Amino acid sequence: METIGGLRIWLLGGFRVELDGRQVRDEAWRRNRARALVKVLALAPSHCLHREQVIDTLWPELDVDAGSANLRKAAHFARQAIAPQHLRTHGELVELDASPLWVDVAEFEAAAHAGRKEAAVSLYRGDLLPEDRYEAWTDEARDRLRSQFQQLLLGLSADRERDGDLVAATEALERLVTDDPLNEEAQLALMRLNALGGARHLALRRFRQLESTLRAELDIAPATEVQNLYREILDGRFPSPTMRPALPHPSALQMDETEDVGVEQRKVVTALWLEAVLPPGDPEVTRDQLLSWTEKAAAVIDRW
Fold first, then answer.
1. Among 68, 101, 130, 262, which residue has the least CB neighbours within 10 Å?
2. Residue 132 carries which DSSP code?
3. Burial zone of 2 (CB within 10 Å; 0-12 exposed, 13-18 middle, 19+ buried)
4. Can you name the residues that pair with 18 across neighbouring β-strands?
5. DSSP 3-state helix, strand, coil percentages of the chain (rounded to 5)?
6. Within a 13 Å sphere around the CA of 276, how many CA atoms are in the beta-carbon half?
């Protein structure tokens, strides 16, 4: 749970600091390395590092004496920004010290470790320190946190599907593929959910978009498992009748709450017949043309 007051630091989606409920303005830092020092300590276990670790992280090209001088300057300006008592040195150690001290990365990882998927996902507001994407010291942590976030979304989607909530399951995966369009595990799961929810054309379109993106960016084809599901959906073999989610009868959707459920009702329906006539030719080309027109027609029908 997020605390009120004290020192609060956000690293996911961008750096932000609040001191006793008030945001620390950008101009308060005065030096970029003062801001970087707080970021490094906030990301560190227990928010504490040996001074040589800090120097190696922020000034790897400098010797100990020059690095120590830079560290003293950075600490001086950092204390001015967040109050002297919140950045302490104990012998060779440098640490953030506040009561309470709240850091979003620590809260995210704690929630993920405890299996609180929704809480963890809500804390992930973007990749770690995107403004520092070219700083080597952020790479490992950024990749680790992003991988955790993606696994959480996959798990959350699976939980919602087991609960029968295909909409929530799909939303979790949509967030994942927005973050990583080439994640084939997520794309495969989305194709399944689209088909299970009756949106066959969306599942087919998703495959074709993934196929195009993989070709353009990596010069590879989708994984065999993804291609197999695509063919099953295309051929009408997935989902099988036993897999289709139970949906309320259309008359139940239109029934007024005051109506007697035991009374037989008749509804007007529209039957649509669509026939595509294509000239003889290469079967693969013909199939692609037919699929393209089917998707377009399905999109129009869905809108109406």
1. 262
2. G
3. exposed
4. 8, 23
5. 60, 10, 35
6. 14
**pTM value?**
0.77
Q: How far apart are CA 110 and CA 88, in angstroms?
A: 25
Structure tokens at 251: 């008359």
Alpha-carbon distance of 150 to 145, in angstroms, equals: 9
Cβ neighbours, 10 Å, residue 188: 22
Reported as half-sphere exposure (CB side, CA atoms, 13 A), residue 7 has a value of: 19
* Planar angle of CA 11, 16, 22, nearest 5 degrees: 140
Residue 239's CB is within 10 A of a number of other CB atoms, namely 17
94 strand-pairing partners = 49, 89
Tens-of-pLDDT digits for all 304 residues of the chain? 444 469 999 999 999 999 999 999 999 999 999 999 999 999 999 999 999 999 999 999 999 999 999 999 999 999 999 999 999 998 999 999 999 999 999 999 999 999 999 999 999 999 999 999 999 999 999 999 999 999 999 999 999 999 999 999 999 999 999 989 999 999 999 999 999 999 999 999 999 999 999 999 999 999 999 999 999 999 999 998 877 664 443 433 444 444 444 445 555 567 777 777 777 777 777 777 877 777 778 777 766 6
Residues 6+ apart with CB under 8 A from 149: 120, 121, 124, 179
| SS3 (DSSP) at 214 | helix
- List strand residue ranges (DSSP E) for 53-156, in order: 87-90, 93-96, 101-103
